[in-house]
Amino acid sequence: MGESADPWWESAAVGGQPHWHEASASTHPLQLTIDVPESVDRVAVFGAGDRNLKLIRDGLGVGVVAREGQVRLEGDGPSVEAARIVVDRLVDASREKKTLPRPAVMDAIAEAGWRAQRGGVIAQATGSNCMGGWGSGVDVYANGRPITARTENQGVYLDAIRDNDLVFAVGPAGTGKTYIAVAAAIHMLKRGMVRKVILARPAVEAGEKLGFLPGDVFEKVNPYLRPLLDALHDMMDYATVKRFMANDVVEVVPLAFMRGRTLNDSVIILDEAQNTTRGQMQMFLTRMGERSKMIVTGDITQIDLEDPRESGLIDAGRRLRRAKGVGMCTLQKADVVRHAIVQRIIEAYDDTADSPNTFLEDDDG
Q1: What is the pTM assigned to this prediction?
Q2: Which of 34, 66, 144, 295 has its CA 20 to 30 A from that of 217?
Q3: In what order do the strands lie in the sheet with 250-254?
Q4: What topology does CATH give the domain 29-118?
C-alpha cells in the first residue's frame, strides 16, 4: 500500500500467522451423492423445509439437492468434502434419535470448515488458500455481484485482512474501508471460516449520548449504524440479512454494547474508530477471542472528539504498529471509488497539513 507520510502509520507485522493456510488438496469441481439410510429420520437430517441443507449450502458455498433419500453435493472438491462431513454428522445424530437444533448445525458447519482448512482442504477453485489473493472477487451472498479490489491499495488491504488477525485501515471517505471489511467478513462467514460477523460503531460521538433521541435503544442507535446495514444489504438479499440477524449470525451494535464480551470464531469490525477514546479502543481490542479476526477502520482527518489527541485509533496505531499479527493499511485519495466528484471534494478540503487532528508523531518525537 502506498507509503504513508505519517511516521507511525507504517506497514507492520505482515507475516503474522493467519487462520487459513494454503491448500494442498485438489480444488477441481466435484459431485458427490450421499445415500441417507431409510432407518434414520430423514426429516431430522434434512431439517424442516430442508433447513439444514440450506444452511450447508449458504455456509460452505456448495450446491445441495435432496431427492429420494439421497443428498447430492456439487462444488469445489474441498467444500464438498466439508459438506459431506456435516451430512454424516446429521445422519449420525439421527441414528441416535437426536435432532440437531440450528445453532448445533451451524457449529458443525463451522467445525467442518476449520477441520478442512487445517488439513489444507477448503480452497477456492483457483488453487490458492481459501481467501486466496482475492483476484476473482470476494464471495458474498448477492448473486452476480462479485466484489473485487478496484485499486492496488484496496488489494493490499484485502491481503492484510487475509494474513493478519488484527488490521487497521485509515483513509478518507469513499475509499472502501468499511465496504471491503464487510465484504471480507461476509466471505469468511459464507465459506464457513467463522460463525459470526459483528459490526460495531461508536454512536453519537465517542460518549454515545443517546438519551435525547426518541424511541428505544435500537431506534436510538439505528441512524448511526445505518452505513453498516447499507453495506450488508448490498451483499445479501433482505431475507438473508433478516434471517442472519434474527439468528444472531450477524450482529450490528453500538460500541458500548461490546463491553464484557469475549468473541470467539468471529469477524469483528469497528467502523469510525477515530471517534473512540483510548479506553474504548482498549476495551474493544481486548474482546478478541479464539479463531477471530478484527478489522478497525477510520478517517483520522474526521475526529469528532473534543480533544483529537485522545483518539483511540491514533493511540492504537502508535502502540501496535510493530506488533506481530497486526496489519496497518493507509488508503488515499487515489483510492476513492465513489462518484468522481468525491475525490475532487476531498482534495478541496484536504488541509491536513495544518489540521490539529493529525497527532501522528510519536509521543517523544
Answers
A1: 0.59
A2: 295
A3: 250-254, 196-201, 266-270, 293-298, 166-170, 326-330
A4: Ribosomal Protein S8; Chain: A, domain 1 (3.30.1370)
In one-letter notation, the amino acid at residue 134 is W
Q: What is the CATH number of domain 152-354?
A: 3.40.50.300
Q: Rounded to 5 degrees, what are φ and ψ at 67?
A: -155, 125
| Residue spans in the chain of domains classed CATH 3.40.50.300 | 152-354
Q: Which amino acid is at 154?
A: Q
Cα separation, 318 vs 316, in Å, equals: 5
CB 56 within 8 A of CB 64: yes
- Given pLDDT bands bounded at 50, 70 and 90, which one contains residue 35? confident
Query: Letter for the amino acid at 235?
Result: M
The residue with cell 448445525 is: 105
pLDDT 10s digits, 199-208: 998 864 434 4
Average pLDDT over residues 227-243: 80
**Strand order through the sheet with 70-76:** 29-35, 70-76, 63-67
Residue ranges matching CATH 3.30.1370.10 in the chain = 29-118
